[in-house]
């Protein structure tokens, strides 16, 4: 039996809340990624890992906040706990791979394309893995073209976000990029939901899984608490809020001497000290 799918069960409340979660995770992740570019290699993995976890947690929270408004007529929905939290691990891991590529190779060329592709595929994988964790008395089918469009949107959003993170143009630049990223990620979610078709078998209650209301508590306690902690780190670090330093950190490179003070002194050829002329005796013998 074909049934009707509702994606806005609470009106605009769930889409707006989901968008804010995506923007929050994106803003924190982009600032951490930008901060990683300004530090030495010993500190870079920590900032990149924090940025990966922030973006992954924000996108995962966005997905399930939006799913609170997703209802299907004639059948209740339950969620598999293991599959649901596995989608969080996939999001953080694949977003982290893309961010580490850009963090070490730069936000341009092949590195940007590779990092954006992997990050976008991670976002899409999180979405459809979370959908696979749904239990209901029926079967879900997807429109292939619409699914492909949602994946392309995720890849484009991830690439644009990583490019913006590599620009390091200050806090307002990252906020604007996060707003665009949140809009693209939320748009990817609802595009993917538009591809869903449900064929209900009956009205029986699924035997396994938790209800959407039961999943709300761990979402608020877990990822949102982490996002709050990451926000505190951003606020307490003036370099992340105000922008980059005046000079890039000095890193050791083979064959290039390091300068501890970050400056390089040059001498003009015309200002070289003149050596006194010394009259040397000729080496060839002279007849006296």
TrEMBL record:
Identify the PROSITE patterns for this entry: MHYT
Q: Which UniProt keywords apply?
A: Membrane, Transmembrane, Transmembrane helix
Q: Name one Pfam family in it.
A: MHYT
Region described as Disordered: 251-288
- Composition bias of kind Basic residues appears in 265-288
Q: Report the superkingdom from the record.
A: Bacteria
Where does the chain cross the membrane? 12-34, 46-70, 82-104, 111-130, 142-164, 171-195, 215-236
Protein name (Swiss-Prot/TrEMBL): MHYT domain-containing protein
Species: Streptomyces violaceorubidus
């Amino acid at each position: 039996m074909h049934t009707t799918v509702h994606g806005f069960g609470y009106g605009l409340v769930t889409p707006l809340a989901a968008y804010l979660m995506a923007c929050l995770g994106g803003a924190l992740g982009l600032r951490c990624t930008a901060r990683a570019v300004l530090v030495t290699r010993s500190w870079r993995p920590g900032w990149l890992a924090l940025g990966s976890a922030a973006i992954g947690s924000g996108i995962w929270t966005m997905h399930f906040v939006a799913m609170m408004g997703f209802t299907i007529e004639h059948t209740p929905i339950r969620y598999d706990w293991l599959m649901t939290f596995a989608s969080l691990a996939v999001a953080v891991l694949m977003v982290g791979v893309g961010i580490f590529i850009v963090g070490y190779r730069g936000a341009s060329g092949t590195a940007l394309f590779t990092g954006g592709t992997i990050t976008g595929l991670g976002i899409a994988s999180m979405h459809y893995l979370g959908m696979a964790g749904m239990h209901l008395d029926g079967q879900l089918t997807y429109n292939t073209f619409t699914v492909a469009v949602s994946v392309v949107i995720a890849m484009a959003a991830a690439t644009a976000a990583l490019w913006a993170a590599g620009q390091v143009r200050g806090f307002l630049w990252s906020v604007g990029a996060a707003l665009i990223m949140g809009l693209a990620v939320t748009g990817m979610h609802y595009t993917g939901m538009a591809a869903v078709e449900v064929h209900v078998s009956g009205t029986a209650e699924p035997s396994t899984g938790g209800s959407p209301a039961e999943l709300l508590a761990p979402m608020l306690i877990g990822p949102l608490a982490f996002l709050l902690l990451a926000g505190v780190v951003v606020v307490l670090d003036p370099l992340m809020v105000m922008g980059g330093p005046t000079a890039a950190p000095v890193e050791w490179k083979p064959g290039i001497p390091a300068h501890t003070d970050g400056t390089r002194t040059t001498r003009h050829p015309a200002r070289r000290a003149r050596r006194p002329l010394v009259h040397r005796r000729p080496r060839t013998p002279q007849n006296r």
